Amino acid sequence: MKQVGEARDGAESLCPPIDLVGEPDWQPFDAPALVGASLRFVSGEPDGNRYRVRYYRDAHQQLQARVWFGPETEGPPGHAHGGSMAAVMDEVLGLAAWAAGHAIVVGNLNVSFRTLLPLETVVTVESAVVSAQGRKVLVEGRIRQGDTVYVEAQCLCITLPDQSPASRQDAR
Ligand SMILES: CCCCC/C=C\C/C=C\C/C=C\C/C=C\CCCC(=O)SCCNC(=O)CCNC(=O)[C@H](O)C(C)(C)COP(=O)(O)OP(=O)(O)OC[C@H]1O[C@@H](n2cnc3c(N)ncnc32)[C@H](O)[C@@H]1OP(=O)(O)O
């Protein structure tokens, strides 16, 4: 049976390069340098047909991402699978907490799907760390393109002992 992304002759057909450039006042953010190469479920195939992701920090130091939802994220015909969008929010919002200095895992992720997201669209994933009290770090975010909001999410992150970003970098 022919697989998604497989050309007629059986060779894998990759989509062409995608422009994931950020806004002029964004700085590129090296996520693997902070959390390691295990961060690959969403952002591990930068030339693949699933997601293509590039991270930035904005002028307020908040994490932003440009994300392309490729043909392999399909759910409803021609549109992104809800789980594929939830996975993006899990990674981006969890990473936002790490980028703000909190060594966390995601405890709860609340995702509202507002608008069907057409495949092969480049979107912006915005994030903001809104509070940090005790072990609880609350991060909010959304997937949008222009004025269209596709997803809104709230993410409760819980800090882990002895896993601070600084201590992980010292350990290398
Ligand atoms: C030890 C293993 C370490 C593994 C990870 C290590 C390093 C990670 C390194 C790099 C990370 C890389 C990238 C990070 C960026 C993105 C990654 C994507 C994010 C993920 O993909 S990450 C995977 C999915 N994630 C899980 O697989 C979590 C499984 N889970 C647990 O590991 C525990 O469940 C935990 C730790 C969450 C809590 O367990 P715990 O025993 O430490 O703490 P406890 O239960 O006492 O909760 C303390 C206070 O948080 C409240 N609280 C807890 N959970 C809540 C919930 N769900 N809703 C509402 N409130 C909640 C309690 O109500 C209490 O509140 P209060 O103090 O007020 O009573």
Structure, explained:
InterPro entries: HotDog_dom_sf, THEM4/THEM5_acyl-CoA_thioest, Thioestr_dom. There is one protein chain. The chain is of the alpha+beta class and 172 residues long. It has one domain (27-170): Hotdog Thioesterase (Thiol Ester Dehydrase, Chain A). Helix content is 17%, strand content 35%. It contains three helices and seven strands; from the N terminus they run E-H-E-E-H-E-E-E-E-H. The protein has helices at residues 31-35, 82-99, 165-170, and strands spanning 27-28, 51-57, 63-69, 104-113, 121-133, 136-145, 148-159. It has a seven-stranded antiparallel sheet with strand order 1-2-3-5-6-7-4, with helices on one face. A hairpin with a 2-residue loop joins strand 6 (136-145) and strand 7 (148-159). The longest helix is centred in the middle third of the chain and has 18 residues, at 82-99. 28% of the residues are buried. Residues 1-8 have low confidence and may be disordered. It binds ligand 3IX. Ligand 3IX binds at residues 35-36, 39, 90-91, 94-95, 98, 105-108, 135-136, 156, 158, 160, 163.
Class from secondary-structure proportions: alpha+beta
- Strands of the biggest beta sheet: in what spatial order? 1-2-3-5-6-7-4
- Assign an overall shape: globular
The residue ranges in which pLDDT falls below 50 over 5 or more consecutive positions are 1-8
- Hey, roughly how much beta strand do the residues contain? 35-45%
CATH architecture descriptor text: Roll
* Distinct ligands, ions and cofactors found in the model: ligand 3IX
Helix content: 10-25%
Per the CATH scheme, the topology name is: Thiol Ester Dehydrase, Chain A
State the CATH class. Answer: Alpha Beta
Number of helices: 3
Count of DSSP E strands? 7
Q: How far apart, in Å, are the first and last alpha carbons?
A: 45 Å
Alpha-carbon Rg, integer: 17 Å
The profile of the biggest β sheet is: 7 strands, antiparallel
Average of per-residue pLDDT values: 91
SSE string, helices as H and strands as E:
EHEEHEEEEH
